[in-house]
Design a protein that fits this description.
Blueprint: E1 3-5, E2 11-13, E3 16-18, H1 27-37, E4 42-44, H2 52-60, E5 70-75, H3 84-96, E6 101-106, H4 113-125, E7 129-135, H5 139-147, E8 155-159, H6 167-176, E9 179-183, H7 198-207, H8 211-221, E10 225-226, H9 233-240, H10 249-256, H11 271-278
Parallel strand pairs: 3-4, 4-5, 5-6, 6-7, 7-8, 8-9, 9-10
Antiparallel strand pairs: 1-2
Bound molecules: NADP nicotinamide-adenine-dinucleotide phosphate (NAP).
Length: 282
């Protein structure tokens, strides 16, 4: 699996397996094992997904050495204040049955972000986590966090797909050395028009790939790591099979031009969305 180097020096796979909504102890443990057997080395979970134990069980059934795996979890914002961040991270490690995680993210930019960030800095220093980062941080929030803390986030995980490419955020992340990771790289299939665009279908036909593979290849070729989720073995395999072709510069430009800044899944800038999220407890 191809990787990119984080600002901590660790390598992060460019394709990871998304596990949101994979909560069935049997079927979804099997899906995670299928992903690892298909070549995925990054597994993306979160406290809020309520599946860290399932991920831990799947990992225990795989023969892949721990050092070759890259495990991410995320701290929910109700666990940001006081010593809750550290305690909840220790709980996540117990559920995952791991000594350390490769990456821990602050899931949303709400509540006591500063306190939680300093707690993660300490956890990184203590060896509980190799790299620390954030998720759903928009440019001003990211710059603020970077400028008033010691450790620059290694990663910002944000919704990114053909219709939502976050150009300004991409420039900010490049400037500060923060790796861009795309969640919902298919926009959770909420707008299937994206797969009927001429630029997508033409590339799919030319390279003998599916439109979903073109969507992932575009992001990865832009240096963005992607986290596709699927419960189906054939799709899990296909979504990782995007390294045997290269889009031309013209194709990349045409695909980039499809951006509509259309947020389909997670919008930390939207007032109603934020009010609803804040009511969610885990
Ligand atoms: N940090 C955050 O706040 C945040 C938010 C959302 C997501 N995430 C992470 O990002 C991961 C991915 O995002 P997501 O789960 O929201 O959505 P997604 O990966 O964009 O889309 C998943 C949907 O696409 C379908 N799909 C997968 N592969 C396909 C293929 N090859 N052809 C056609 N359809 C396909 C899946 O259906 P089937 O399962 O039926 O195949 C599912 O309905 C999550 O699982 C999670 O790990 C993070």
């Amino acid at each position: 699996m191809k990787t990119r180097t984080l600002n901590t020096g660790y390598e992060m796979p460019l394709v990871g397996f998304g596990t949101y909504q994979l909560t069935d102890p049997k079927a979804d443990e099997t899906a995670i094992i299928t992903a690892i057997e298909s070549g995925y080395r990054l597994i993306d979970t979160a406290q809020a997904y309520k599946n860290e134990e399932i991920v831990g069980k799947a990992l225990s059934h795989c023969q892949v050495p721990r050092n070759d795996l890259f495990i991410t979890t995320k701290i929910w914002f109700s666990n940001f204040p006081g010593d809750k961040c550290r305690k909840s991270l220790e709980e996540s490690l117990r559920k995952l049955d791991l000594d350390y995680v490769d990456l821990v993210l602050l899931h949303w930019p709400y509540n006591d972000v500063y306190q939680a960030w300093r707690s993660l800095e300490k956890a990184q220093h203590d060896g509980l986590v190799r790299s620390i980062g954030v998720s759903n941080f928009m440019p001003s929030q990211l710059i603020d966090l970077i400028c008033f803390n010691d450790v620059t986030p290694a990663v910002n995980q944000v919704e990114t797909h053909l219709y939502c490419q976050y150009r300004e955020l991409q420039n900010v992340m490049r400037r500060y050395g923060v790796a861009h990771q795309a969640y919902s790289p298919f926009g959770r299939n909420r707008n299937m028009d994206m797969y009927k665009e001429d630029a997508v279908t033409a590339a799919a036909q030319k390279y003998g790939k599916t439109p979903h593979q073109i969507a992932l290849r575009f992001l990865v070729q832009s240096g963005i790591s992607v986290l596709p989720k699927s419960s189906h073995a054939d799709r899990i395999k296909n979504n990782a099979d995007i390294f045997d072709f290269v889009l031309t510069d013209d194709e990349m430009k045409t695909l980039a031009a499809l951006d509509k800044e259309d947020v389909l899944v997670g919008n930390s800038q939207d007032a109603t969305y934020t009010e609803n999220m804040i009511k969610r407890t885990v």
